[in-house]
Amino acid sequence: MGFIWSVQALLFFVFYLTIFVLSAWALLDCLRRPAGAFTAAGKRTKTFWTWLLVAAAVVAFISVPIPGFPSFGLSFLALGSAAAAIVYLVDVRPAVAPYSGRRGGGGSRGGW
Known about the structure:
Layout lengths: L1 H31 L2 H6 L5 H18 L14 H19 L16
Helix pairs in contact: 1-3, 1-4, 3-4
């Protein structure tokens, strides 16, 4: 029976750690984008998304279970963190990307 509890604890750890990594990725991407890109794309402001994703990352970090320590009872809120990060990554990020001023590939020397 101890093995099953160990596997379950590992799965919960991986699940909540994934949510935290997703939230952190969304937050870092949001911070890299210029504020004008959000309004140009018709999305909420950069300030709104930054604070939402900061809250999501903090809640996700607190929700990651640490073996041997009691849970804070916020693990259900991590699902909201995942939702905020997924909405940003799937909807907002592609919309603001064309306005970010970055071009893929290349370098500073132009053509080939």
